[in-house]
Design a protein that fits this description.
The protein is α+β, with helices and mostly antiparallel strands. About 25% of the residues lie in helices and about 40% in strands. The longest helix is centred in the C-terminal third of the chain and has 18 residues. InterPro entries: MoaE_sf, Mopterin_biosynth_MoaE.
Length: about 140
């Protein structure tokens, strides 16, 4: 069951995602929180900001991705941030609950990997000296 599936230009609430997948019938919850880090192997200096932008269809696509991993025994809450995020900012939250831990882990990992590969959200990486580059271009291939 998909309980949350969205793109947001507001900060993502990790606790709200956990609450969304909570249920008396589940025994396990797997959580992934992706944050902006200050290093990148391809960057010459320190990363200070990521500017996320999205294709107009991205909200529908994240829902479609979530639906593709949906099974009757799992509850899914996934959101991706757009806009400017400083180091430490939360870029993606994915919470999956199920009766057993193995399924929660497996579905969570699959969902995160699919979002990274297929969601048309792009990021411009800004370094401390003001230089920038587009990284992690994916989706709509």
């Amino acid at each position: 069951m998909i309980v949350v599936s969205e793109l947001s230009d507001e900060p993502l609430d990790v606790a709200a995602h956990l609450d969304a997948v909570a249920s008396a019938s589940v025994g396990a919850t797997a959580l992934f929180v992706g944050t902006v880090r200050d290093i990148d192997p391809d960057a010459a200096g320190r990363v200070v900001l990521l500017e996320y932008s999205a294709h107009p269809d991205a909200a529908d696509i994240v829902t479609r991705i979530a639906a593709s991993v949906d099974t009757p025994e799992v509850r899914v809450a996934v959101s991706h941030r757009v806009g400017d995020l400083a180091v430490g900012g939360v870029a993606i939250v994915c919470a999956v609950s199920s009766v057993h831990r193995a399924e929660a882990f497996d579905v969570n990992r699959e969902l995160v990997e699919r979002v990274k590969a297929e969601l048309p959200v792009w990021k411009k990486q800004v370094e401390s000296d003001g230089t920038s580059s587009w990284v992690g271009l994916g989706g709509l291939t």
